[in-house]
């Protein structure tokens, strides 16, 4: 039985981003996925993929590239839309209001899952080809009066039922402890991991991190993958047990080789940190691939960057770069949403699609990603994937400026707005709340 805390990566994106040159834009923020398991200290949560909003095919018109973005074709400039009153010299009256009070909430939050049955959503390859909605079944036969065939007989479950983990997953923590503790005392590594989890979280018992560390150590030495992963984190942290980097690496590798997806991603991060340049990245690649296949959004994002930045990779890998970025973005990782929007607008690793790019940048901007807010302003100015809207462009400029991202081009645009337009943009920025 898969345990609820088997899939929790320790995010070390600083190490990965330092190793990649121009892999991700600056000021990117991390965001959790839209569905989470119970949180574990020192780890992060992963989520099933989320289908994005409908992504129509690329709009016709002149090619425009967002300024200063990775993957942008050289020699392409973005021209500003001709807004009424843009040349009004009285627009500087509201410039001081740019640095007014920012919204109360700045952190990224979960995004509501889109309808999986939406027609015209992004395909797995990110090419915005219209996808048919999932089948609604045999409703037509019902209406015609034809009898439906009998369902095949369900196969009986022959595996061993773990009552302790079943109780844990249903929220019966005292029952889980009563069932797991005797097994843990008799040397069952999986039960030892569960007992450690209950002590660590204070579920059904008083929180006791020392007891948790003891049982994680027993589980790790007994070979339980989840226990090895959690004990490796404790050895890296050095608070409940003595810090031991060498032993942490050993347990993390064992957990990764045993198939724990969170350990696979984190061991990849260790290899990137320890290896110089491409050496560490290439050593980490197989672990990222295994972790990504099991749904870790951080690993999916890492693959999208490695597949576009490492040389001499086979075409079957490089051709999937955008696919992995789509999967990470659908999981709610806002840096992936930012990059996917940029890739779609600039035509990186696939065709251009301004409308789909706008929607992904809007999703990341609504979640509080400052770089996405800045880029979204350019889309409103140049009418890429949306209608031109000087008020919305000004609003997103104000928000990104308040967060510390200065942009001389956007500031010139803002100062060219009328006094009324500036006031409206500032008012809209003041009302903004992270979604």
From TrEMBL:
It comes from the Bacteria. Residues 46-86 have a biased composition (Low complexity). Residues 28-136 are annotated as: Disordered. The keyword Signal applies. Pfam families: Sel1 (PF08238). Keywords: Signal. Residues 1-28 form the signal peptide. The keyword Signal applies. PANTHER family: ERAD-ASSOCIATED E3 UBIQUITIN-PROTEIN LIGASE COMPONENT HRD3 (PTHR11102:SF160), SEL-1-LIKE PROTEIN (PTHR11102). This is Sel1 repeat family protein. It comes from Mycoplana azooxidifex.
